[in-house]
Specification:
The structure is a homodimer. Chain A is an all-alpha fold. Chain A has 2 domains: about 55 residues, Arc Repressor Mutant, subunit A, CATH 1.10.10; about 150 residues, Tetracycline Repressor, domain 2. The longest helix of chain A is centred in the first third of the chain and has 27 residues. The N and C termini of chain A lie far apart (about 65 Å). At the A-B interface, helix 8, helix 9 and helix 10 of A face helix 8, helix 9 and helix 10 of B. The first copy, chain A, binds a DNA duplex through helix 3. Chains A, B: Pfam families: TetR_C_33 (PF13305), TetR_N (PF00440). Chains A, B: InterPro entries: Homeodomain-like_sf, HTH-type_TetR-like_transc_reg, HTH_TetR, MT1864/Rv1816-like_C, Tet_transcr_reg_TetR-rel_C_sf. Chains A, B: This is TetR family transcriptional regulator. Chains A, B: Keywords: DNA-binding, Transcription, Transcription regulation. Chains A, B: It comes from Larkinella arboricola.
Chain lengths: ~200, ~200
DNA sequence: CAAATGTACTGAACACCGTTTATTAATCAA
DNA sequence: TTGATTAATAAACGGTGTTCAGTACATTTG
């Protein structure tokens, strides 16, 4: 008598089908193509059906944003194997930017758009994905402290500062605020600024 | 026979009237209230009329964004009077964040939304406001270098790094990505991270 | 001064959007 | 088989940015 189980399974399948259609549209055509109506078209259901499985568009975007975090943590994995914690730290920064560069829409969803956060807030829930990604950073910084590479003793504060810096650089680029620098110099300038930050914390943090 | 002059004047007045209505709506009710139709209502003209004075909504947003820069540069003014260039630098950072905190919608327009930048791009124009605000920072950093406070010799690269850091911290806050820290600790944590950054560049840059 | 030209403006439409609701069709339990 | 539950939808609501044909008025010309 597994009827309720089957129903539950079917429900999950439908949620997944919707999410996958959303992801496909999103990755193929960017944010503007992810309308409830477009998703409905893609899965050949009516727009109203989406609302039987997701409360609203924000909740759907939050689910997409979770997928983004899985992708990002994947991208971080091999960097975490690096022996030296400082090398690891620098590599994490590099990959944060690279991830944003390769997946601008996902990054948007993960760190810039307010919509997915609003979905969280109205569920009175906690941003688990963000927290666990941040903890990756904290662990790494803590190792730097333990090895005596940093004078600072507060790994969390140091991590926030490092995240801010790398994020700022990334967000300004992504939102076209670095286009005031000529295209030729831009890449070099950004690389220099990134290196300068690394050197500065290497010797001064 | 100043008819064409009068017409030109009337045209500028209308552009100004539209922009002021947009600004008013924007500051009073946030971004979502700035629709072409809302602006048209406010100035008691039809929506189509707006398009006789601004190419599209992006162009209007770009004009608003320029107003934002004037406000921000105003907010910077008194900090620029500070004697010590490093104190000045720190104060500029503080005010960047404070400006964002006090004018979140404007800050959005100035540094986060892509729309106004798209308006610029399709006119093949340069982001003058951004450049001149950035130059304020470069000048300050250059003074720090000249006074021997920083070892680095490239003021532009150092400025980009500093801007990135302060911007990142600001953008993460504004976009609710720091709400994973409990509300009580958050403010303190951010202040600590900001101070840590300042100390680090003070001794290590 | 009257007719012709130019232009400022608008109503209505187009093609979208997120979301809600009343209703129908299908499935399940008794 | 009947009655209750559930899944899906058509249609609408109230918005959005934008375009365009047409009107009414101002200006120039004969």
């Amino acid at each position: 008598m597994g009827i309720v189980e089957r129903k539950e399974r079917e429900r999950e399948e439908m949620r997944k089908r919707i999410l996958e259609a959303a992801q496909k549209l999103f990755l193929e055509n960017g944010y503007e193509k992810v309308s409830i109506r477009n998703i409905a078209d893609a899965i050949e259901y009516s727009p109203a059906t989406i609302y039987l499985y997701y409360k609203d568009k924000n909740e759907l975007l939050y689910a997409l944003h979770q997928i983004g975090f899985h992708k990002m943590i994947d991208a971080f994995q091999s960097a975490l194997q690096l022996e030296d914690p400082f090398d690891r730290l620098v590599e994490l920064g590099r990959r944060y930017f690279q991830f944003a560069f390769d997946n601008p829409e996902l990054f948007d969803l993960m760190f810039i758009m307010t919509a997915p956060m609003d979905a969280l807030a109205c569920k009175n829930d906690i941003w688990d994905e963000g927290k666990s990604a941040f903890n990756l950073l904290v662990t790494c910084v803590q190792e730097c402290i333990d090895k005596g590479l940093f004078k600072t003793q507060d790994a969390e504060v140091a991590s926030l500062m490092i995240w801010s810096s790398v994020h700022g650089y990334t967000a300004l680029f992504l939102r076209k605020r670095l286009e005031m620098f000529e295209e030729n110099r831009r890449k070099e300038l950004m690389e220099s600024a990134f290196n300068l930050f690394n050197e500065t914390i290497r010797h001064g943090l």
